[in-house]
Specification:
By secondary structure, the protein is α+β, with helices and mostly antiparallel strands. It has four domains: 2-135, Beta Barrel (OB fold (Dihydrolipoamide Acetyltransferase, E2P)), CATH 2.40.50; 151-278, OB fold (Dihydrolipoamide Acetyltransferase, E2P) (Beta Barrel), CATH 2.40.50; 292-451, OB fold (Dihydrolipoamide Acetyltransferase, E2P) (Beta Barrel); 452-483. The chain is 20% helix and 34% strand. The strands form five sheets. Strands 1, 2, 3, 4, 5, 6, 7 and 8 form an eight-stranded mixed sheet that branches. It binds zinc ion. The site of zinc ion has 7 residues, from loops.
């Protein structure tokens, strides 16, 4: 390099650069992208787009507090800012998320590429000689450096990757407490976001973010509220879902917001053709809604997810394996509190005693109750089958079967093996007598497969694909997978 041996005054060099780069309104501001590690005398101006919590550090040299923020300048370049104990005391509460500041001096170091999510590969350490002043808001500095990913593209993102997403809030839940297996309590709020790819995804926000966003959404009177999230985690839980975000923005003042709202209004509220990447985790799933379908693998994933202790409903198409029917002896009381659902005990004098209504009867009724394996293309699971669903399956009551004693010979039972149904199953986490957790899955509802409907729905989905409303991965994973093409990912 020719300039290597030349003695230069760095200040003059920077001034020359600034003459080219500077913003007319701020002649002494250095663009973040132009900063170098040796720079000592500089001012940057930008918006605080991330404000981390204060953490602790501890090593052989001692201990202290540390925090990290992100600043974004007019050229849409962001950089990480680090503060330690003393400077935290001085500046942490002064620096507000979303506000604009001029920061003068500090030391610049190479940021650790492993953790750095910013465009600048430097980090600014706030030092004793650093001065910070607040500026009035100006629209020319973006609210955030977003790199939005369309929702239909999230299908291809790996579990654990981070994305920025913007979408219309189709629906949102109340904030619910969740207790983990280890007794830690969280609060969460689920939102369903849809964008102009006609695809929706469930976003779960946690704790403060859940409460703040939920409160703000409740204040919105329209049905075209837009939510943008920065740095949300893609997870493979219940299909594809998003978990948490560094920041959540409601109706952010960016062009994407107006574009989405215009699109949504043109579709008519809630009428947009859509496909959901998430298999809904609430209990409002509808067995008649093709797009609410999940699979047995979702049950397995649910069981592995430690943050869940509430019930989980999943709808899927599956087969019964070999069925061994069985019944129990139920209280004959048709009314409250038994409804012929409580087990009775046979007494020594061949009467039947019911624990629930505390009465003894001469007779009892027989009700179906047994467990069986159901399988689909993704997995298999053991489920409990209650009387109502068993009657549907056999087209026979347990009472008649008991009277005739033909459960091993009648073709009704043999024919039920390997039949295909649409199931709605409920998975519950329960505690046994030894305080250990286990899962119980039972059928809440089931209906025969309507093959004509199935083929119509698949052709609609294919049509959506052709119009590029949904992408091929969505179809392959969600639909063809169930037709045994389950190796394509
Ligand atoms: Zn009873």
């Amino acid at each position: 390099m020719a300039s290597r041996c030349k003695i230069v005054n760095p200040y003059v060099v920077k001034q020359n650069k600034l003459n080219i780069q500077h913003n007319n309104n701020d002649p002494f501001i250095t663009p973040i992208l132009k900063l170098k590690t040796l720079d000592t005398n500089f001012s940057i101006k930008g918006r605080i787009t991330k404000k981390g919590n204060i953490g602790e550090w501890l090593n052989q040299n001692g201990s202290g507090r540390v925090t990290s923020l992100t600043i974004l300048d007019v050229a849409n370049t962001d950089m990480s800012i680090t503060m330690f104990s003393e400077t935290i005391n001085k500046w942490y509460s002064f620096l507000e998320l979303g506000q604009i500041y001029i920061i003068t001096n500090g030391s610049l170091r190479e940021a650790n590429p492993k953790y750095n999510k910013c465009i600048s590969n430097l980090q600014l350490i706030i030092e004793k000689n650093t001065t910070i002043s607040k500026c009035p808001d100006s629209n020319n500095i973006p609210i955030q450096r977003f790199q939005f990913v369309k929702i239909n593209r999230l299908e291809n993102k790996n579990d654990g990757s981070y994305v920025d997403v913007i979408g219309i809030v189709q629906e949102f839940d109340n904030v619910l407490p969740v207790t983990s297996k280890y007794g830690k309590t969280f609060e969460k709020c689920n939102l369903n976001l849809i964008d102009d790819t006609g695809t929706s995804i469930c976003l779960t926000l946690w704790n403060d973010s859940a409460n703040n966003t939920n409160a703000q959404l409740k204040l919105q009177n329209n049905n075209n509220t837009v939510v943008a999230v920065k740095h949300s985690k893609v997870t493979d839980f219940c299909g594809k879902t998003l978990s948490g975000a560094v920041n959540t923005y409601i109706n952010p003042k960016i062009s994407e917001t107006t574009d989405l709202q215009r699109w949504w209004l043109s579709q008519g509220p809630r009428k947009a053709p859509f496909i959901s990447l998430s298999h809904t985790t609430n209990n409002n799933v509808d067995i008649n809604n093709f797009f609410h379908r999940g699979n047995i693998n979702d049950i397995m994933q649910y069981k592995q997810n430690t943050n869940n202790n509430k019930t989980f409903d999943v709808i899927f198409k599956g087969y019964f394996s070999k069925i061994i029917p069985a019944w129990f002896l139920a209280c004959p009381n048709k009314k409250r509190p038994c409804f012929q659902l409580c087990k009775v005990k046979q007494t020594l004098d061949k009467s039947y005693y019911c624990d629930k209504c505390h009465l003894t009867y001469n007779t009892c009724v027989h009700k179906w109750l047994f467990s069986n394996i159901i399988r689909d293309n993704t997995s298999s699971t053991r489920v409990t089958i209650f009387d109502k669903q068993a009657q549907q399956l056999f087209n026979r009551t347990a009472e008649i079967t008991f009277a005739r004693g033909d459960e091993k010979t009648h073709p009704k039972f043999r024919n039920a093996n390997n039949t295909e149904w649409i199931f709605k199953c409920r998975v519950k986490q329960k505690k046994n007598a030894k305080d250990k957790y286990y899962f119980q899955t039972h059928i809440v509802e089931m209906k025969p497969v309507d093959y004509k409907y199935e083929s119509i729905m698949i052709s609609i989905v294919m049509g959506l694909y052709k119009k590029e409303i949904i992408n091929i991965q969505t179809i392959i994973r969600g639909y063809l997978q169930r037709l045994k093409y389950n190796t394509i990912k």
